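Data card: per-record layout.
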Amino acid sequence: MVTDEDKVFKALADPSRRRLLDRLRQDSGLSLNDLCEQYDMSRQAVTKHLALLEAANLVVTVKRGREKLHFLNPVPINEIYTRWIGRFEAGRLQALDNLKKALEEKKEHEKEEKKHGQH
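The structure for this 119-residue chain is written out next.
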C-alpha cells in the first residue's frame, strides 16, 4: 500500500523533480512550455515528472484557456517537516534554552561571589 507520504518521498527523491519544484517556488503559475524552457529534458520527460509531482500533491494545476498552469503546493513538505524534523528540532531548541538558562545562572552566581569577595 502506497501512502501519500510515500508518494511525496518518491517525488522528492529525483533531482529533476526537485529542480522543477524549485522553479515553481521561484516563479509560480508556470505553463508546461515555461517549465520546459530551462531544462535539458524533453517535453515528455517534464510532463512525466509533473504527473508524479501532481500525484504526490506537490504541484497543483489550474486551467487557463488551453493552458494548464502549475503551482507549488508546500503543504505535503510541511507535513513531512512536522513529522520527521519538527519533533527533533523541538528537543534541540529546549536543550539550547536549558543551556542558556544554566549559563545565565552560572554568570549570576559568579557575580554574587565577586560581589561578596568570594572567588
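Known properties of this structure: Residues 23 and 35 are 8 Å apart (CA to CA). The chain has a mean pLDDT of 90.

See the next section for split statistics.
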